[in-house]
Amino acid sequence: MNIGDVSSRSGLPAKTIRYYEDIGLIKPHRSANGYRCFAETDLHKLAFLGRARALGFTIEDCRTLMALYEDESRASADVKQLALEHLAKIEEKIADLQAMHDTLSELVKCCAGDSRPDCPILKDLSGES
Amino acid sequence: MNIGDVSSRSGLPAKTIRYYEDIGLIKPHRSANGYRCFAETDLHKLAFLGRARALGFTIEDCRTLMALYEDESRASADVKQLALEHLAKIEEKIADLQAMHDTLSELVKCCAGDSRPDCPILKDLSGES
DNA sequence: TCTTGACCTTCCCCTAACTGGAGCCCTCAT
DNA sequence: ATGAGGGCTCCAGTTAGGGGAAGGTCAAGA
């Protein structure tokens, strides 16, 4: 398979696939003409990476997950721990965003949003509380 | 004031303050020795920027917000619109993160997390559903 | 056979919002 | 005079790729 085929079958842009090769996540063979030559296992790995990235895992997490996936003697506890740590980061981000959301929506609610200059949002940002 | 004073009074790292000058958000004067020389208004602007950034506004949003703040004839509607657009982006991010969270926590729940290799998280990532 | 268009290659720069560090200068106290 | 603790500029790196240039390859049609 050429990169275009793998791209459409995995849903990942060709750029991303080349990047993943660059950083050593996959190692496709090369044809005589220099084109990358992907096997089914490469496609499978790329799909794995795509799903892990969609769950928000970092590239380094993906590297670890792939290694665990390929290690037949892994302990599921290791996978679970990685997932739990990631989950904690997600929860932290949600909490941060939620706090911003709450503050900002409160300010927005207090802003008339008309043609007059008086604005509680700017007032808050400027420190006049 | 030197940059260290402004840094401790605004809570922003000196590096960040230099960066904000670089991109034109503030324009402190210079002393004869080449040191940045901050006025109270600069400090006030930096505090404004710090609060806006803490609410998740991008630097470009901050630039616009500062311009609105300094424009005595602004319409509060313009501020409110910017805030509402930002709020929408925040909500989108929260929804994305929440979806990741739900999927991942479901997988985690199904994973024994022991010394055996069998792992529903890896199984899901590998596409065996 | 030639050409055209689609595909592939590498290479380099760009993103946001800083952070870290090197190498150097300035000032003040000892 | 010297050492500590500022300050200065400039360069590189961070995440996870995206955009685009310059050029090689391949298959189909005229």
Briefly characterize the structure.
Two copies of one chain form a homodimer. With 129 residues, chain A is mostly helical. Helix content of chain A is 66%, strand content 3%.
Please provide a written account of the structure.
Two copies of one chain form a homodimer. Chain A is mainly alpha-helical. Chain A folds into two domains: 1-57, Multidrug-efflux Transporter Regulator, Chain: A, Domain 2 (Orthogonal Bundle), CATH 1.10.1660; 75-129. Chain A has six helices and two strands, in the order ααββαααα. In chain A, a hairpin with a 5-residue loop joins strand 1 and strand 2. Chain A is elongated and about 70 Å long. The interface between A and B is large, with 53 and 53 residues. The structure holds a DNA duplex (30 and 30 nucleotides).
The H-and-E topology of chain A, N to C, reads as HHEEHHHH
Low-confidence stretches of chain A: none
Taking all Cα atoms into account, the compactness measure Rg of chain A is 23 Å
CATH topology of the largest domain in chain A: Multidrug-efflux Transporter Regulator, Chain: A, Domain 2
Average pLDDT of chain A = 97
How would you characterize the largest beta sheet of chain A? 2 strands, antiparallel
Helix content of chain A: 55-70%
Any key phrases for this structure?
6 helices; 2 domains; elongated; homodimer; two-stranded antiparallel sheet; DNA-binding; Multidrug-efflux Transporter Regulator, Chain: A, Domain 2; mainly alpha; 129 residues
